[in-house]
Structures are given as structure tokens and as C-alpha cells.
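tl;dr need the bound structure. longer version: we got a ligand (zinc ion) that a collaborator sent over and nobodys looked at where it sits. i said id run it. heres the input, straight from their email, havent touched it
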Amino acid sequence: MIADQHLHLERGPYTPENYPDEWVDRYLEAAAQAGVSRLGVVEHAYRFHEARGLLDNAWADARCLYRLDSYLAFVERQKARGVPISFGLEMDYVPGAEEGIARFLGLYPWDFVHGSVHFVGDIGIDLADHRERAAALGRRAVWDKYFESSRMAVRSGLFDVLTHPDLPKIFGEQAEHSLLEDFRRTAQALKAQDMALECNTAGLRKPVGEIYPVPEYLAAARAAGVPVSIGSDAHEPENVGAGFPAAVSLVQSAGYDEAVHFIGRRRISAPLS
Ligand SMILES: [Zn+2]
Ligand SMILES: [Zn+2]
């Protein structure tokens, strides 16, 4: 059994202010069917008023809608129910925002925190309507800035896991230059901070049609002694554990025989088979 360490609950009428227990139960039922033993819920930090301005752009501002205390009441209710769920956050790393991020993360004892780079400047690299601007910046510059931000995120010491770590390939545009040196340097930074790298299956459901990251990146992480966590990035119950057989064989090919999950900021390893 394996943990799905990257899930979002927000969908349609369900928001971080009003999740009913029945909605959580649908995720738990899907997990049982997919052979997933534990869930890791990581709502996007930018959804909460208390994080306003940390991801400082109009796109995030328009989506900053919810009260953290309402969500935390829900989290506490789930903990009281004893469901096998760890509650973390997917926190955007923004260079220069480290103090504010630390302050926001300190508002609650999260089980773990995902560090994510979704923006290069104010260009959302996974946003279809930002693609023209990304193209104008240039593919090489996008990858270079992405890895620069990723390593700054790691070195900030704020996070437990670096998520979907080769996200710029999302629309199927792979880098035209070798990324091996970036993989190696980022893996070394992860090791130095005792962080994990995420194997994220959402890419299978995106135009690129493949898991994040590529096998060479996982191999670099494995060589550096960096643990791996596995997540579906599901935003709906149907995708809990989606693509996990492929993810498990991918990380096994890189030499891993365990994956990690987190409870109370404590990292726990579990065998893959
Ligand atoms: Zn993400
Ligand atoms: Zn996510």
C-alpha cells in the first residue's frame, strides 16, 4: 500500500470553507479501490486570505477567496474522525517572499509542506493562456529560471517536498538543451536540505502525457540519496492514485524501493511493494 501525497479537495460547489465529510469519504473510497493507504491533502496556499500577496500577481489575487480558520476547523474535524489523511499545503515559492511564507506556514502545525514553482516572474508556466508570453521569453530562459527558482525554494528550508519538478514540459514542449546538470544540482540541493522529490502523475493527464519528472531526474535524485514521494495531484475523487502503477515502476527503475509520506512534519518511508 502506498500514500497519495498530493491531493486537492476543491471542486465545483466544494470549497475550503464548506467541505462536507461525505466529500472526503468519496476520496477515501477511491483510495481504497486504488490500493492507496493514506492521503495527503495539499490545498493551494494562495486560496487563503492569510496568504494574500505572497504569490503577488493578478491571477492569484483573483483566486484568494477563503478564510484559513474555516478550513482549519474542517481539518480538525477530520483529525477527530481519525481518517488516514495528512494535511499539508501546496505553497508557491516566490523569490524574496521567504519571510512572509514562513509566517503563513507558522499559522498551523501542518503535517508537511509542498514547495511548488508554478510561476516564472508573473508567467504561469502551467497556464494555457500564458503560453504566448512564455514563448516570447524563450524556452531556454523559462527552463533556466524555473530551475533557479526551484533551487532557491529548496535552499529556503521552508519545504518538505519539491513538487512536479519538471513542470515546464506540461504542454509537451521539452527542453531543447540538456537538463542533466540542472537535475544533478537540484538533487544535491535537495539532499543538503534533507528534502524529498515528488513523482507526480498529473502529467499523464496533461498534453505532455508523461509523469513528472523524467527518468533522468529521478535517477539523479536517487544517486544523491534524495527520497521520493508519489502524488496524483487529483482534484477529484476519480483520480486518487491515478497512474500509480506507472509511477511505481518509474521510481523502481530509478532504484527506489520505498516512498515517503509525512505525519506531523515527520517523514515516514514505506516499501513500494
Ligand atoms: Zn502544482
Ligand atoms: Zn497540486
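gonna send this back to them w/ a short note. Residues 6, 8, 90, 233 surround zinc ion (ligand 2) (CB under 6 Å).
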